[in-house]
Amino acid sequence: MSVVPWVPTPSIVIDYLLHALGVGENDVVADLGCGDGRVLLEFCKYGALGICVELNRTLCNIVEIAAKTMNVRDRIKIYCTDFFTMDFRRVVPRPTIVYLFLYPSTLEQLSHKLETEFDPGTIVVTLDFAVRGWSPFFVKSLVDENDHDRLVWFYAIGISNPSARKIECVNQDELNSIERNLCSRKFSFY
Ligand SMILES: C[S@@+](CC[C@H](N)C(=O)[O-])C[C@H]1O[C@@H](n2cnc3c(N)ncnc32)[C@H](O)[C@@H]1O
């Protein structure tokens, strides 16, 4: 399995996400492979809870120090581990947003785990690379500070994976959960 190296998300993407998703204190944001935590730390400043999962111990330590410096240490949980070995069904409070800046092959390997371990309606955001076979409900193109084109993909658990769509099924709880998570959110795509 190829290990995704640390490449940070550009600040223009973080600013866009904060605005587009209307991130606030009702959000629990999980970054699988959170690097130095820059995405989550910024979200925490807006009141969200952050769940950082990172394999690299040095980066985990950096997240910890930065969280203390920014006074958000109590708003971020740091799991210094391989996200493939985590059981996200046990994570409480439940994530409302999952952020992924990973290789396409890693996204593909993760897709079943995302579908089965996160709640219906959870928003999944990927940077640059799509989740193969899933249908995004929105895609944003941005130009970063180095003049590179970047793509941000927005998906929702229970809707975006055609082979696991819950929308036609009769489970009213899951439908209610999707509706609550998506319809109550003040998206502000621009
Ligand atoms: C492209 S970087 C993205 C960093 C951060 N999410 C951001 O956007 O700034 C990918 C990160 O995932 C971490 N990573 C790769 N495979 C992982 C795994 N199986 N479990 C946990 N972290 C992993 C790497 O160490 C690296 O920090």
Structural write-up:
Strands 3-2-1-4-5-7-6 form a 7-stranded mixed sheet, with helices on one face. The longest helix has 14 residues, at about 105-115. It has a single domain, classed as Rossmann fold (3-Layer(aba) Sandwich). The chain starts with 10 loop residues before the first helix and ends in a 7-residue tail after the last helix. It has helices at about 10-20, 40-45, 55-70, 105-115, 170-185; strands at about 30, 50-55, 75-80, 95-100, 125, 140-145, 150-155. The model has no long low-confidence stretch (mean pLDDT about 90). The chain has 5 helices and 7 strands; from the N terminus they run H-E-H-E-H-E-E-H-E-E-E-H. It is α/β, with parallel strands linked by helices and about 190 residues long. S-adenosylmethionine (SAM) binds near residues 38, 55 and 83.
Keywords:
190 residues; binds S-adenosylmethionine; alpha/beta; 7-stranded mixed β-sheet
